[in-house]
Amino acid sequence: MSDLLDKLNDEELDFTVTITDTDGVKATYDFLDIVFHNEIEYVVLDPRDGEGYVDIFRVIKATKGEAYQRVTDEMLLDEIFDVFRRKNEDEFDFE
Asked: 22 phi and psi, to 5 degrees?
């Protein structure tokens, strides 16, 4: 179980996530949801800069907690976002 899923289970639904990339650049996101697709855990995050899109990261277990790998494959992004959209159709306006 991921650290983020632990927060969900503890009902800490309104939180932010800060991710540091390999160049040391930090980005802060609003957490939207965790989605499982093909038995792989992904996190759907809303960038704090408000560009009107979401970022999707694969959750990877690491020696010190977990790491997040940005999903860049367009087909996979569409599949994961479709799962997210169906799961949250009553929560968000997808128009």
From this structure: -65, -15
C-alpha pair distances (Å), 61 with each of 39, 55, 64, 65: 14, 19, 8, 6
Angle, CA of 82, 49 and 54, to the nearest 5°? 10
pLDDT tens readout for residues 29-68: 989 999 999 999 999 999 987 677 899 999 998 888 888 8
What is the Cα–Cα distance from 42 to 33, expressed in whole angstroms?
9
Single-letter residue type at 58: R
Do 68 and 60 contact (CB within 8 A), yes or no?
A: yes
The tens digit of pLDDT for each residue in 9-31 reads: 555 556 888 888 889 999 899 89
- Give Dmax over CA atoms of the chain in angstroms: 40
Q: What is the rounded CA–CA span in Å between residue 88 and residue 32?
A: 10
